[in-house]
Amino acid sequence: MRFMSAPSIGQFIPGESFIHGLDPRCKIVATVILMTGLFMASGIPDFLLWFCLLLLCSALSGIKLGVILRSGRPVLFLVLVTVVMNLLWTPGTELARLGPLRITREGVLLASSMGLRLLFLVIFAGMLMMTTSPMAFSDGLERIMSPLSLLRFPTSEMAMMMTIALRFIPTLFEETDRILKAQISRGADFESGGILRRARSFIPILVPLFVLVFQRAENLAVAMESRCYVPGARRSRMNPLKWRGRDSSALAGLALFVVFAIFCDRYLFKAILAWLAMR
Amino acid sequence: MPIVADNISYAYNVGTSAESVALRGVSFTVERGEWVSVVGHTGSGKSTLAQHLNLLLTPRSGSVSIDGAEAKPGSGESRVARRRVGLVFQYPETQFFAETVRAEIEFAPSNWGVSGGALKACVDEAVSASGLDPALLESNPFALSGGQRRRVAIASVIAMRPDYLVLDEPTAGLDAAGIRELIQFLSGVRDAGLGVVQVTHDLRSALSYSDRILVLENGSRVVSGTPEFVARHIIDNPVRGLVIPPVVRFADALRKKGMNVPLICEVDEMVRAIGIYKERNKKCGS
After folding, report:
1. Does residue B137 form part of some domain?
2. Number of domains observed in the structure of chain A
3. Which of A127, A256, B8, B78 meets the CB 3.0–4.6 Å disulfide criterion with B62?
4. Do B253 and B228 belong together in one domain?
5. Could you tell me if A141 and A256 lie in one domain?
6. Domain total for chain B?
7. Do A172 and A265 belong to one domain?
8. pLDDT in tens, B78-116
9. Are B156 and A187 a contacting pair at CB < 8 A?
10. Are B1 and B64 within one domain?
11. Do residue A212 and residue A253 come from a single domain?
C-alpha cells in the first residue's frame, strides 16, 4: 500500500557541480530570464533549442535528465487540460473532424507550444530548487530583495519565514504519513462512503496534524528566542554570498542563449522554412 | 496459531535517489500468549518490521501470514488483518483527535461497526485492562498527563480486541514508574493470551521481560532466541548501539569467576543469588 511520501519534486539534491556552486542570486535571476525567454518561445524548433539547454544543464549539474524531467510531473494534468482545450477550441484550417470536434492546424501548433512552455517553465523552476539548498535559496532571495528594505519592507523576516516554511514541508509529510498509518491501524477507512462521510473521515488526520504543527511552531519559537533571535535585527553571516566571475559569465551566457533563441524563433527558423518552401 | 513473517525484504523510496533498504530477508514469528521483543539501533529496520505485521507495508519479497492465512494487500483482507493485529505507534498520543477519552477509545471498534452495548463493553474492557481511571473517560485527552495519555492510546487499540498487540517503542518518553506500569500491563496482556511484540532499542527491558528476542542491525537479523541466549551472544559479539545492562555484565563477570548466578535477573534477585551462593560456600567450608 502506498501512503504519503516526501515529494521528490523540487527537492534539493546535494552535489558539487558547476551549477550547484553558482551563487543563488545568479540562479534566481537566471531562472527569471529563462522564464521570460520561454514566454517568447512559440515554435516547436525553438523548444528543441530549449531542450538542448536542458541537456546542458543536466550535464553541468550532474543530475540525470530523467530526474530533472520528473519535476514536471505535478503539472502534467494541467498541461494535459491546456493541450486538449487548445487543440479543440482553436479556429483555423481544419485537419480532422470527429462529430462536433474539430482539430485545426493552428490548434495543434498552439496546443503543443502551450504544453511545452508550461512543462519547461516548471522543469526549469525545479532545476533551481534541485541545485539550490533551501537555505541558500532564501539567502539569495533576501539579498535580491534587499533594496526593498529601504522602503521598510521586512526582507529578512520574509526570508526567514520562507526558510522555515521550506524546512517544514518534508517534516509535515513525514508526520502526516505517520498519523495516517496510525489511524488506518485503528481501522480508519478513507475509501468507502459518500462525500460527507469521506470528508469526516479526515478529521482524525487533520486534528492531530494541527496539534502537531502548533506544538512544533511553539517549540521553534522558544528555540529561536533562546538563541536571541530578534526580528529585523542586523545579523552577520557565517557564509556571506560571494558573486564570482563564473556567476557573471553564466548569466551572460544564458542571456545570450535567450536572445539567440528568440532570434531563431522570430527570424531564423521562419527564414529557413521560407527558403525550404521556395526550393 | 502464530504470525509468521518469512524471509521478508523491504526498501523505501524505490527507484529514487533516496532508495534505502530497510529489511534484508528477515524471518520472525510470534505466537499468541508470547512476548517477543524486536531490538535494534535507530535505522535497524525494527519499525519497518512492525508495520509489516499488520500489512501497513507489504514486503517486496517474502511473505507474512497471520494465523496460517497468507496476508495479501487488498482492502478487505488487510482490514481484517489490522483488526487482529493491533499496532501502537511510537508516541501514540500524537494521534488523538477526539474531544473525550471515551470517543478516542471508541474510534477503533466503531470503525469495525461495533456499536451500542457491545461498544460500551469494548471500552470498559480496554479501560480496565490498561489500568486507566474510569473517571477520566469524559475528560479531554489533551489535558491528561504523559503516562495517562499513553494508556489511553494503548487502550484505544486494545478496544478493538486484537489477537496480537504490536508496540513501537512503547516506553519512549515515559519515566521509570511509567515504564514499570507499562511492562506490568504488557505482561498481563500476554498472560491473557495475546501475542505481544515490543519494538525497542532498550535491551534491558527486552532481556528482563520477553520470552524471545530478535536483534536487528541494518535490516538483517543478528541473533534471535531466548533472552539468555541473546545476552550471551551480544556479550561475545557486541552490536553497535546496544548496551548490555550493567547487572547482566556483572552477572557475566561473576560467572566467569566461577560463581553460579543467573545471567539475567534484576538487581534484588542478583543480591539474593549472591547471598545464597555465599551461604552455601560457608556451609561447604565449615
Report:
1. no
2. 2
3. B8
4. no
5. yes
6. 2
7. no
8. 788 888 999 999 988 888 999 999 999 999 999 988 888
9. no
10. yes
11. no
Mean pLDDT of B41-54: 91
A209 touches chain B (CB under 8 A): no
pLDDT value, residue A9: 46
Rounded CA separation B42/B219 (Å): 11
Q: Are residues B168 and B65 in the same domain?
A: yes
Same-domain pairing of A126 and A260:
yes
B112–A184 CB contact, under 8 Å: no
Assigned domain for B92 exists: no
Report the residue of A186, A190, A215 to disrupt the B interface, i.e. the one with the largest count of B CBs within 10 Å: A186
Pair (A178, A45) in one structural domain? no
B126-152 pLDDT, tens digit per residue, is 998 888 889 999 999 999 988 889 999
What is the mean pLDDT, run by run of 10 residues, along chain A of 279 residues? 48 86 93 92 85 92 87 88 87 79 85 91 91 86 86 84 83 89 88 79 91 93 92 80 92 93 84 83
Report whether pLDDT(B184) > 70. yes
Query: What is the domain-level CATH number for residue B234?
Result: 3.40.50.300
Say yes or no for a CB contact (<8 Å) between B95 and A8. Answer: no
Domain annotation covers residue B141:
no
Sequence-distant (≥ 6) Cβ neighbours of residue A57 within 8 angstroms: A19, A68, A127
Question: Could you tell me the pTM of the whole model?
Answer: 0.76
Per-residue confidence band for B75, with pLDDT thresholds at 50, 70 and 90: low
**What's residue A156's pLDDT?**
82
Nearest CA in chain B to A175: B94
- Whether A1 and B111 lie within 8 Å, measured CB to CB: no
Is residue B103 one of the residues assigned to a domain? no
Task: Give the closest of B55, B58, B107 to A204, CB-based.
Answer: B107
Residue A8 pLDDT: 46
- Would you say residue A189 lies in a domain? yes
Q: What range defines the domain where residue B231 resides?
A: 1-86+164-172+193-239
**For residue B179, is pLDDT > 50?**
yes
Q: Does the CB of A53 have a partner CB in chain B at under 8 Å?
A: no
Question: Are B168 and B285 part of one and the same domain?
Answer: no
ipTM over 0.90? The verdict is no
